[in-house]
Amino acid sequence: MGFGGYLLRRLLLVVPTLAGVTVISFALTYLLPGNPALVKAGALATPDVVREIERQMGLDRPVPVQYWRYVSGLLRGDLGESSSTGRPVLEDFRQRVPATLELTLASLLVAVALGVPLGVLSAVRRDSLLDHVSRLLGVGGVAMPSFWTGLLLLYVFFYLLGVAPPPLGRLAADVTPPARLTGLYVIDAALTADGVALVSALHHLMLPALTLGFAVMAPLTRMVRATMLEILESDYVKAAWAAGLPRRRVVYGDALRNALIPVITVLGVIFGFLMAGNVVVEMVYAWPGLGHYAVTALVTKDPGPIQSFVLFVAVMYVFVNLAVDLLYGLADPRIRLR
Amino acid sequence: MSMDRRSFLKISAGAAALGSAGVRPVRSDAQDKRTLVVAWDTDIDTLDPAQFKAIGGYVTIANCYDTPIAWKVQPIQGKPGFALSQPAQWEGAAAESWAMERDGATIVLKVRQGLKFPSGRPVTAQAVKYCFDRGLQSPGYMRLLFPSLIGVKSPEQFEVRDEHTFAMRMEQPNPMAMDILALSNNAIMDPDEVKAHATQGDPWAAEWLKRNIAGIGPYRLVKNEPGVEIGLDATKNYWRPEPYFQRVVLKFVPNETDRVLLLKRKAIDMVVGRPGLSPKNVKSLEGEQGLKVFTVPDTTCHYLAMNQQRAPFNSVKVRQAINYAIPIQALMPSVLFGYATQMKSPLPHLTPGYTGNLSPYKHDIEKARQLMKEADVKTPIPVKLAVRVGYVTHEQAAVWLQRELEKIGFKVEIVKETDATFRQVAIKGDHELSIESWQSWVNDPWYHLNFLMHTRSKFTNASFYSNPVLDKIIDESLPETNSDRRLGNARVAQKILIDDAVWGFLWYDSWTRVMKTDVTGIEKRWDTFERYYGARRA
Fold first, then answer.
1. Interface probe, candidates A152, A161, A196, A202, chain B, greatest B C-beta count within 10 A
2. In A, which residues are within 8 Å of B257 by CB distance?
3. Domains in chain B, please, with CATH?
4. Over the stretch A205-239, which tens digit does the pLDDT of each residue have?
5. Distance between CA B456 and CA B148 in Å, rounded?
6. CATH top-level class for A92-294?
7. pTM of the predicted model, to two decimals?
8. How far apart are alpha carbons B420 and B256 in whole angstroms?
9. Cα(A263)–Cα(A115) distance, integer angstroms
10. Does residue B423 belong to the interface with chain A, where contact is any CB pair within 8 Å?
């Protein structure tokens, strides 16, 4: 069986995984304390009203029946309704996933653009001032909570200098969002040649991406540095040095290429982490993504959004892992996907 | 439009350069004189006037729907540019006038002539009846409030006398009726529009009304992007004079520090919400150039609920001891920064009948210890004090309370719970001590005490106080029309509740807003939610 067979087998394996995930996401709303019907009923409600809402929400039905309703709803694309926004969860996700994805991709870009060269330079100039600075930056990125970094950047660039836009979302108030193709404003604006929206989107993306990118740059830099150090000590690199190959070619050609293989895994993990866990940065910049939505749902014990968020994260990880495995096959000639 | 890779890269690179150079490509909404930009941290949960729970829902409905009558506001002496509602003062809205019959047991509303729904159909008495019928027969506030508080239990009590005359017949006169009619949940909707979206399973179109507005008000909803912003535009050809602000943009800003920075940078006009800013942050904005702080005493109560179904809080001596241990003199400056008033009664201090001189409680640890000794309880008493996550003043007050209560024999563990958990644990009776808050939409002593102190109010009587004598007084006083008896009974009830130390008496919030100095015409009504049609720029 070749690569196609491997892919098919992996995709088929996704099905039981997803089935398991639906059980977990469904069970989660039972394990969390708090009765969603009570929240929905409000402070003035009477026990009768709460019972009526429980009936409407199906919470009075046996658990297997509720699970079946949930799964059959999922299959129809019905993820339930959010009691905070009053809208179908699917509609909320359509609005919020692209926002989170845009921020995630932009911060990954920042992390890769800064982290990889820094890791390489650190390894090549081991124990130099640059190495120390790079390690210090790495430690700083991990040690400084992104809440703090975000506020600091806002304070300096928005409040003091006035060069960053106010933390009021993804676009300036009087800029119309670009025609929706992907939901990622930067991409959509670029594809439709909407210069005003593109400038505004980039302007608004700048600080959040920098904050988040700085936070996740550290593991990337450390990974690149460690792998590079290891590779630079390996026999084939020594042989290349000995053969008199140019330094640039050895470092940036042979060594870096091989050092990037484990980076793929790290990037996959970071991507998943960012998609699911950048609530703090979203809060600081009023970025209308998934993180704040999920937290609000947890606080109000809103079953539809909670279940959908868990499901979304699980599905995303399944596909991120799959993508990482596939990329491995492409990047590392020693691995054959069969 | 097609674009090749080169153009794409060029545009992207150019845009990135502009962005990183810090060019501010667009002006802020706050710079448009006729646009009011407000920051808050709420979304519209539903647009159904019978069902809203979130502040976002309430404010949008209050600005986009007319009620039959409304609370009238009056300017405040010494605070130019601000107006407050006053007890027993109303003004016409969808109804231009009203009259009482049967000694006030029937309220007759004259629907405003010439008023039209957005569809162009006229607002008629029939429309008012349809909305009241809907409210009484579908789940929501009206079905909860009308039967129990003003004795309106059947749609037959709503009568259409002619195209513009509607009458509501109560069983007997009721002094709360006008206030209840002024609530936003009595929004007047276009019956034809609602019926067009009704289904067999949803005869009152509750599903459609969650996301649509079927009435008329000073503003109309033009944008609702949860987590981003709500946009309201002034309604054209509305019966009131045109509002100054042609557009109101309510920006979702979940982080309080951002709201402070936005104000300081003047990127927004004001912050609203409950609480939009903590007292500490309001204090820090006092005297800030270009900003002003507007604050008035309000009716929101914050209290220490003591579960009287559980020992030792079933002992009145223990509850009294706790009241003597509350360090209110420290809480006022250190937690509330002066934006509150000390609570001296279970009634809000702005409510008719409030008596502020009945409470003997003040911070006196010796007296508290003495009472604990008299209560004859074994110490130390381990106890959990529950507060809600995100309620900053509650979290801080809990620490002060913990320290003082430990001086009189308690071993206090502070438990932080999310809203949903807190409410569920409270209703199940599993809280021992908890910091609760309550705001009565109707500023009436019996509305307030009915929800908070009556044995039957299972969900809102957070202390599980049960006193048949008080229950009887509440039942008798709810419909009492004689003002002297009504207020006299309020005094008796307060005496009972204060002697019984029903709560640990903490504070009443002040209603506080911080805004740019040129914003004026801010109106505050009993329900605390802003209507923006009176606001303007100086």
1. A202
2. 151, 284
3. 27-65+217-290+517-538 (3.40.190.10), 67-72+86-197 (3.90.76.10), 297-511 (3.10.105.10)
4. 999 999 999 888 888 888 888 888 888 888 888 88
5. 11
6. mainly alpha
7. 0.87
8. 22
9. 11
10. yes
